[in-house]
Amino acid sequence: MIKNIVFDVGDVLVDFGYRRYMRDLGFDEETVDFLSENMVVTEFWHELDLGVRDEAEAVETFTKKYPQYKDEIIKFWDQIEFIVEEYTYSEPLVLKLKELGYNVYILSNYPIETAERHWPKFKFLPHTDGHIISGYEKVTKPDEAIYRLLESRFGVDLTESIFVDDRQVNIDAANKLGMTAIRFTGIDDLLERLGEEFGTGKIVL
C-alpha cells in the first residue's frame, strides 16, 4: 500500500533554469553554452550539492580558471537566488496529495547556500511532512544512504513510497530499494502515472 510520495525538487517542483537565468542576466548564447558546460554541469557543482564546496570557492575557482568570463561569473553568483522558479502546479500538487491522504516528503540534491535563499520562498514546502537536503547531509542521490535517511529520520517505509525524480540514475537507485519510482517528464504524465498507481484515474488539480 502506498502511503508516501517523495519528490525531487530541481526540474520537478521548481525550474532549475540555469540557461534561462543566464539569458535573463544578458549573457550571449556563446557564454551561456560555455558556462553551462564548464561551470554548472560539472563535478564542482556536485561538490556544492555535497556541501563540501561553497559559493565563494565557486567564484574564486571559476574566475581563475576562465578569466575571460570573470565579469559574467561574478554576476552569475551574485544573483544566484534567481536561478530557480517554482512551477505553478507544485503547491496545488502537494495540497492535492495531502487531501488524498498521502504523506509528502522532499529528497533533494541542493547546495546549502542556495537552499537557504530558495527554500523559504517555496510555496509547496510548508505543506510537506519533511525534507532532506543533500548539502546539509553530505550525501547525494543516488547514494543509498540519502534514501535511508527517509527511514531513519521520518520513519518512512520505502516499499510504501512513490519516488518522483527527473534523473534515471536516481530512479534506478530508488527501484533497488523497493520504492515505486516514476521518472518525471512533465506534470500531465505524472498526474496520469499517479492516478494509475492510486487506481483512481488521472489526478486532477
Description:
This protein has 205 residues and is α/β, with parallel strands linked by helices. Helices cover 48% and strands 14% of the residues. The chain is built from eleven helices and seven strands. It has helices spanning 18-24, 29-40, 43-49, 55-65, 70-78, 90-99, 112-118, 134-137, 144-154, 168-176, 187-198; strands at 4-7, 14-16, 84-86, 103-108, 130-133, 161-165, 180-183. The strands form two sheets. Strands 5-4-1-6-7 form a five-stranded parallel beta sheet, with helices on both faces. Strands 2-3 form a two-stranded antiparallel ribbon. The longest helix has 12 residues, at 29-40. The radius of gyration is 18 Å and the shape is globular.
Structure described in brief:
This protein has 205 residues and is of the alpha/beta class. The protein has eleven helices and seven strands. The protein has a five-stranded parallel β-sheet, sandwiched between helices.
